[in-house]
Amino acid sequence: MKSTDGYTVNKLSDPNAPTQGKLQTSSNFRFGPGDVKFKDLNGDGVINNGSQLIDDYGDLSVIGNTTPRYEYSFRLGMEYKGVDFSVFFQGVGKRDMWGASPLAIPGFNSSDGAMPKVIAQDFWYETYDGSGNVIDSNYDAFYPRAYNLGASSTGNNMQVCDRYLLNMAYLRMKNLTIGYTMPRQLTRKAMINNVRIYISLENFLTFDKLRGLPIDPEEIAGYSLLNTSNYNSSRTGVGVPTFKSASVGLQLTF
């Protein structure tokens, strides 16, 4: 996995920049404006994976861990003059993941037509007039220039790197309940020992660092108990999300 250094133009305009190594050319790709610029971590002037041995890993480095770390939960509550309040939160403090779906990686199965708005509006581009002059551009985009990666989460200049690594840490309000218990001196007149009215919300609030990507950090990938090789299996963000629900109730004790 590589560390990134923003964007760069083709190396020919900067003779002192590291050569992008094996990413420089392929049958359908040549490194150029709008592509990701990787850091030359070993200082040899070439960006590559080395021989992928323990003593020669090129510019690869550890950039994350898919194992959820610092899982936690807590509950808060209070009662005052008949009003009761409770809220339950749970979350994961640290988890990293390289996405594998159109919802996480620009260009992944682009023929499917599924692309989040946050990606579609924030990729590098240039448009030209008939004379070849740039008339519109988005040089400060978060995502690189567009490619069709097919059914792959990596390809061309889109390689596993820290810039597009998903931060799957989150804090979710699993439940919020607010209730009111009527005074007993009132309910006893109706021969009712206790009357409580409440409203309960499930999964209504989530804090995450996914930059608006439509991915549920708690339900990460699609899966089928009947067929683990189905279309959505292991695809980031295409599983059934955690449902939100709201309920209102009345509790009577006679």
Can you lay out the helices and strands and say which pair or pack?
Elements: E1 4-8, E2 35-38, E3 69-80, E4 83-94, E5 96-97, H1 117-120, E6 126-128, E7 134-137, E8 166-167, E9 170-181, H2 184-187, E10 194-208, E11 245-253
Antiparallel strand pairs: 1-2, 3-4, 4-9, 5-8, 6-7, 9-10, 10-11
Structural class: mainly beta
Q: State the distance separating the first and last CA atoms.
A: 65 Å
What's the story with the biggest beta sheet? 5 strands, antiparallel
Q: Whole-number radius of gyration?
A: 26 Å
| Quaternary organisation of the protein chains | single chain
| Morphology | elongated
Q: How many separate helices?
A: 2
Strand order of the largest sheet: 3-4-9-10-11
Tell me what portion of residues adopts beta-strand conformation: 25-35%
How many beta-strand elements? 11
Helix content: under 10%
Order of helices and strands: EEEEEHEEEEHEE
Q: Low-confidence spans: pLDDT under 50, at least 5 residues?
A: 6-13
Describe this structure in words.
With 254 residues, the protein is mainly beta. The chain has helices at residues 117-120, 184-187, and strands at residues 4-8, 35-38, 69-80, 83-94, 96-97, 126-128, 134-137, 166-167, 170-181, 194-208, 245-253. It has a domain at 69-98 and 167-253. It is 3% helix and 31% strand. 19% of the residues are buried.
Supply the key terms.
two-stranded antiparallel sheet; 2 helices; five-stranded antiparallel β-sheet; 254 residues; mainly beta; 11 strands
